[in-house]
Amino acid sequence: xSAVVACRGVGRTLGRRGRWVEALRGVDLDIGxxxxxxxxxxxxxxxxxxxxxxxxxxxxxxxxxxxGGVDVWAAPERARRAVRRRFGWIPQDALTSFDPRYRxxxxxxxxxPRGTADPRGAVAGLLEHVGLPAHLADRRPATLSGxxxxxxxxxxxxxxxxxxxxxxxxxxGLDAPAQERVxxxxxxxxxxxxxxxxxxxxRVARRMAGRVVVLxxxxxxxxxxxxxxxxxxxxxxxxxxxTPSL
Length: 246
Ligand SMILES: Nc1ncnc2c1ncn2[C@@H]1O[C@H](COP(=O)(O)OP(=O)(O)OP(=O)(O)O)[C@@H](O)[C@H]1O
Fold this sequence. Notes:
The model has no long low-confidence stretch (mean pLDDT about 95). Helix content is about 35%, strand content about 30%. It starts with a strand and ends in a 5-residue tail after the last helix. Strands 6-7-8-3-9-10 form a 6-stranded mixed β-sheet, with helices on both faces. It has a 4-stranded antiparallel β-sheet with strand order 2-1-4-5, covered by helices on one side. Helix 5 packs across helix 6 and helix 6 (about 145-160) runs parallel beside helix 7. The protein has 2 domains: about 1-85 and about 165-245, Rossmann fold, CATH 3.40.50; about 95-160, no CATH class. A hairpin with a 2-residue loop joins strand 4 (about 60-65) and strand 5. The chain is globular. It has about 250 residues and is an alpha/beta fold. The protein binds adenosine-5'-triphosphate. Adenosine-5'-triphosphate binds next to strand 1, strand 2 and helix 1. Pfam families: ABC_tran (PF00005). This is Dipeptide/oligopeptide/nickel ABC transporter ATP-binding protein. It comes from Nocardiopsis sediminis. InterPro entries: AAA+_ATPase, ABC_transporter-like_ATP-bd, ABC_transporter-like_CS, ABC_transpr_LolD-like, P-loop_NTPase.
């Protein structure tokens, strides 16, 4: 499988004034076209930092990011902007990432490619795709339920027509039924494209991904098939033991 995104020896240090954290260390990772990968690990292990690096938003101090054959940080800014358009981002909490003055439909429409012939129709189609009625387009995000808002975020990420969907704990804080609906929407959105999903929940990882990457203190310590979690090392074994219903 050819990689749509690849990291080579990526190191990312964060912080300031002598308080540095090596958030990522020597990360090598290949995401194949259409592949779904869950990134798991303890709090602070570097999961969100990795997503920011993969999306070409956060520049690593060490190593390379290669997207569709482009060595992203060696390329000119214009090429980097084109690379960023290949990613659709599903945030942890859509409310804080949406402009409160916009209605849900505008949030999605804003992400459509320039020159889209029938934006209203396109927005209605995208909302339908994530299981939401078209009339929700007229509501402000703050008046939607958390689960509805997250599905608007999935529709917005899809509007970009990305090669890769990136999702950072997209069901955090939702109750079980809402979680199910958001995961269904992401699964359906991810059908024809790669998906990288950050989660602390191995049940979500197994349900959503074919492959599970485990981070520990910024390093990839396991990279296993989702149906073979038992073959992982001690960090994954601890996560498994903490997920009794799996
Ligand atoms: N802006 C920052 N300045 C300093 N340190 C940071 C910054 N952002 C993250 N870190 C540190 O980098 C490490 C990795 O953080 P990151 O948010 O990537 O972890 P995570 O696995 O996503 O955690 P969580 O599951 O709690 O969201 C942590 O030790 C964190 O405290």
